[in-house]
Amino acid sequence: MSLKRGRILGGVAALAALVVTLAACGSGGDDSGAKTITVGTSGATGVYLPLYVGVQTGIFKKYGLNVKLQTLTPAAVTAAVLSNNINIGWDGPGLVSGIITNPSAKVIFTAGPTVFYLYGKKGLTSINDLKGKSVAVTTPGGAIDGAVRAAITKAGMKPGVDVKVAYLQTNSAALAAVQTGSVAAAGVSPPTSIQADEKGMVNLEDITALAPPSVLAVNDKFAKSNGPTVTKFITAFKAAVKEAGSNAQASGQALKTYVKLTAPAEIDGTYQAYKTVWTVGPYPTDQMDVMLQQFRTATPPVKGVDTVKISSLVDNEYVNAAA
User: Are residues 85 and 102 in the same domain?
Assistant: First the structure.
């Protein structure tokens, strides 16, 4: 599987320098005495609703936390959490490969899958119709890249050979490429998948199950000085997941505020797609094994993956202690 990590990991230091230094990034707090913790996400989509709802409804405040959100790119999330410019990062495989190369953070839990679909232009009927064509995804080695490649492989074709993969950075750019005809299909998540439906594109397959679960990682330096805060964050996050999944009104408002959705169909569709998929728990060992194998067969392979141990990547202490 072609996961072009070299470019991303090589620029970690430069990207970290571009991330705005956050006030109260360590063990500081706001005027109310709440403990400040900064969390970075790779974009603004429906998968992050528990964070949005937790901040907007005051759930994190109830647990004595002042959660500051930063919307970044996948590469910037990795750079920022490794440098402690953010305390916790939420992304996918890129975050794990970054930790392998620069072991200054640990995976502390997963929030479950990101919902992904493969949408094609009109006239296509199955993934097999993509042979000899191109598919757009966001970034190399990301969760959607892995899911699309797995879907192509499952259909008996070879990614990069039978079906080309184009990297266009964002869901919206991938969808636009299908519209213009520069690619035949795109891997997207809600709300972009709902926009694809509205434009008459063909849902070739739900590929959620083919993607690795989401990755949340904490900076080692922050965790060492603020262990109880990390545990409290996960406890509060669980409460936010429950609220996001049961409170359509709060989730809808959060999608308007943070994802900037305005169309009722996109708001409701995104909420319906995600409300039952969040699952807070330790990162599954079998899924981490799959990810590491993908890193070994990458072009080039992720540096250090042949000797890394899962125990050095994952710390379940905080999620196991969370109420």
Answer: yes
Which residues span the domain enclosing 140?
117-210
Question: What is the tens place of the pLDDT at every residue in 280-314?
Answer: 999 999 999 989 988 898 878 899 999 999 999 99
Distance in angstroms between the alpha carbons of the first and the last residue of the chain: 38
What is the widest separation between alpha-carbon atoms in the chain?
Answer: 59
Q: What is the pTM of this model?
A: 0.84
* Separation in Å, CA 182 to CA 161, 174, 186, 199, 251: 17, 10, 11, 16, 35
- Indicate whether 129 and 146 sit together in one domain: yes
pLDDT digits (tens, 9 = 90+) for 221-236: 999 999 999 999 999 9
CA separation for the pair 40, 62 (Å, rounded): 21
Handedness of CA 277, 266, 246, 228 (dihedral sign): positive
- Tell me, yes or no, whether 19 and 71 share the same domain: yes
Residue 114 and residue 192 in contact, taking contact as beta carbons nearer than 8 Å: no
Bridge-based pairing state of the strands 202-206 and 105-109: unpaired
Grouping H, G, I as helix, E, B as strand and the rest as coil, residue 54 is: helix
H helix runs in 139-187, sequence order: 143-154, 171-180
Whether residue 245 is found in the same domain as residue 193:
no
Q: How far apart are CA 176 and CA 194, in angstroms?
A: 14
**Residue 118 gets which letter from DSSP?**
E
Domain total in the chain: 2
Res 32: pLDDT? 56
The residue out of 195, 210, 225 marking a domain boundary is 210
pLDDT of residue 31: 45
